[in-house]
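Methods — Computational structure assignment.
A single polypeptide chain was analysed. Its primary sequence is given first, followed by the predicted tertiary structure written as structure tokens.
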Amino acid sequence: MIHVWEDFPEGSDITGYYCNVFDITMKYLLDPLGLNKSLQDVLNVFYAVRDGDSFDAAFQNNFGLSQQVFEDEFYDRIKAYLTVLH
């Protein structure tokens, strides 16, 4: 749910908690036990944004689900993913 720097809560530890959330998110997106996407898919999101697509459109086109659905289901998806890993 953080889309721009201003979305971080004031006083946030950006290098701690949020980096860990980014890390597990990337692992989920790339892992065959998660969304099973590739680094190229991730790059394609950024290329599409560079070329003028919204992040949501780029995310949906490359990951097969909308950013809103991913945000809404994030904790359930990550919890299920971590359960499978252990």
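Note: The chain has a mean pLDDT of 86.
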